[in-house]
């Protein structure tokens, strides 16, 4: 066997030996979100030991192809225990969706986002205590931004990509950083990603490196409206070394839950939209998005599949809560949200 074939086979064997399957039997259903439709584009994280879900969008009356209108929300919900009951715990400053969610010891940080007409620069911390949330304003982003990706590393939050306006026909490739230990310095603009500007990418941070996976570039169609170019490239960034191209994903994975979970030193991309059914008809029979779990091993710069999820949810955060991965709702298929909340173990049994 050639050395070229040996490396990916050994990498796949290593991943299978060091990772739990995280397939369908490893996931349990938590109480549904207290909305019959559920939400996409919500903020989600942990504060005061509780799971927090805030904002997001849905189509409460009709699907978009039936003339339905997308509605943005500002409600904040909290679940104190996996077998508990969701409580309405407060409100965001305004209806908001499709920003970045980062959990810190002090609470959930909500970054940017937008509504039907404007994207936002605001950044704030949501802290939960005694059944209610309090909001603390943090330094605003350098620009209005939504549909970006983000991750936290060594007490610094990083945000990459996104769009400045809801109708933008070009995505940004910007990289911004906010040092949580030096908030007075505000956001710093770092070298942009050398790849295409993108929306709905997935990010992760592991052992001093950031990782940026997939997403979609934008361009104008014949009518001047934004259309997507589906990406499966991947990049890594280090503070003193800048950007480096790494192995492409085996398939496109737009809007996979982010920040991507880390398991035994490997980064998991949970599903994501591969674009294969973007023109599927009839729309109300769309079967949903890919359920395959992809695992990236930085040491070997390789990918392997780890089985399938029991759900098909995109445009939703991934949250670590009580030592497990939580996927709180999201878009189950185009125009259709889900109130389901899933919890999967991230340590071997």
UniProtKB/TrEMBL annotation:
UniProt entry tagged with the keyword Membrane: no
Protein name in UniProt: N-acetylneuraminic acid mutarotase
Q: Which UniProt keywords apply?
A: Signal
- Signal peptide interval: 1-23
Against Pfam families, the record matches this protein to: NANM (PF24996)
Domain of life, per UniProt, equals Bacteria
Q: Does the keyword Signal apply?
A: yes
